[in-house]
Amino acid sequence: AAVDNAPAIVVGSGYGGAVAALRLGQAGIRTLVLEMGRLWNTPGSDGKVFCNTANPDQRSMWFRTRTEAPLATFLWLDVVNKDITAYPGVLDRVHFDNMSVYVGRGVGGGSLVNGSMAVTPLKSYFAEQFPTVDADEMYGTYFPRANSMLGVNTVDPTWFESTEWYQFTRVSRKHAQNTGLKTTFVPSVYDFAYMQKEAAGTATKSALGQEVIYGNNYGKKSLDKTYLAAALGTGNVTINTLEKVRSITRASDGSWLLTADRIDVTGAVVETKQYSCTYLFLGGGSLGTTELLVRARDTGALPALNSSVGAGWGTNGNTMVGRANHLWDTVGANQSTMPVMGIDDWANTDNPVFAEIAPLPTGLETWVSLYLAITKNPQRASFTYDSSTGGVKLGWTAAQSAVSVAMAKKLFDRINSANATIYRYDLFGSTSKVFADDFCYHPLGGCVLGKATDNYGRVKGYSKLYVTDGSLVPGNIGVNPFVTITALAERTMTRVLAEDT
Ligand code: FDA
């Protein structure tokens, strides 16, 4: 097959890939981005690019015939999931033995589906997780750069106190305060000026129209509107969609050779393409990048990759839980899909937890307070190559999830006891499941900075091969991870463009 050449190739168009593409393009380096998902810019027959959470259709999930939403049931009824047609939809749920991982698919990766929470980690915890990184430089240069490029903003506190759309958050805050716990506002890349117009009835509803996880039609500054738009604007960056990189090898002249499958909307492989480049940047996310490198090492394609490739993976301690409120403590039928507040008990060294107050935007009063807890779970797992499938297996165990659950339970037992409330038993699929212990939103690690790579994301054992995404983060960062991933990618690109090109 013919080989397409580009000086630089970037695999994936999430946070890590988007930063790499922009900075390469600005440096005048012709760059090709290969993204397995589609470009989300064309309205469907309903006039919308994305579907909402209440009426999911084929656009919702990556080649499924039934949606797999995080909340499996409501009042034990399977009302949450719907039959759909298989299609390259925007949200994927990747199943491993004891853990399934939600990821975004499309130009913009996770930014298309996520909850927009844009949190800079505590400096002390960042320094603990990244002992070899200059934290002063991160907090002086790269975190501010990431926040500004991503368009991070905060909710107007006066509007927050009065709007019906955040009553669910205020109820949870009250319960936290009754427990003596601290709450904090969480910044966002959802445009709150737009959200206020939605509430006023002067703009089409998105966050206030049950849109999130399957995409937002308005209001959200996803990467296609920020980094990737700027990257294309340099004139040096091209994005090929519906192309999944399958393998990486190195030619005798030192250039990188990639094999990619181009699929159509039915998922059929319509072409297998060969690419070659001088500089290869991996931004396929914790799952995508780690799989490519584990496969390359264990099939003998890139034998010099070290044993840290595939290791150090964690869930950011994720677990979800719902509490049942008293009848007089209504959370409201109208709920914004964008969280703006967290319960911050990270300073509790016996049991550090940061719990986001999450919406349950059903359009009905539910009396549910829902949370996404990020716990300081120290458990890590590794990916191994599975020669029978050509894919990878993840060694995460149920006991490792139980560590996150136990930590979250300690916090929410306190909240329930202070408020004389109980848990909800009807949300996660079985009558006994109170804590969601089988999925996560924050896959981190697999090619940890300083272990699988040098201190700047250069993959050990090879030159001109870089990791720029969430695989660099050692399994836990204590807050939602995309600001950290973006800032680390900015740091890598500054160094690499100065020294390697
Ligand atoms: P990311 O996953 O964003 O991008 C990887 C891209 O590479 C994808 O587009 C993928 O299709 C593509 N790809 C992978 N393998 C490939 C291959 N072999 N060939 C071609 N393309 C390939 N975080 C946060 O900070 N705040 C929040 O509010 C939330 N909320 C949230 C909600 C939900 C539902 C999810 C699923 C996730 C979140 N997150 C979040 C997590 C956040 O979205 C996540 O950490 C980042 O998107 C990870 O960025 P990366 O650059 O690592 O990969």
Automatic annotation (TrEMBL):
Pathway: Steroid metabolism; cholesterol degradation. The keyword Lipid metabolism applies. SUPFAM superfamilies: FAD-linked reductases, C-terminal domain, FAD/NAD(P)-binding domain. This is Cholesterol oxidase. It comes from the Bacteria. InterPro entries: Cholesterol_Oxidase (IPR052542), FAD/NAD-bd_sf (IPR036188), GMC_OxRdtase_N (IPR000172), GMC_OxRtase_C (IPR007867). Belongs to the GMC oxidoreductase family. Keywords: Cholesterol metabolism, FAD, Flavoprotein, Isomerase, Lipid metabolism, Oxidoreductase, Steroid metabolism, Sterol metabolism. Its EC number is 1.1.3.6, 5.3.3.1. Residues 104-127 form the Glucose-methanol-choline oxidoreductase N-terminal domain. The keyword Oxidoreductase applies. Pfam families: GMC_oxred_C, GMC_oxred_C_1st. Its cofactor is FAD.
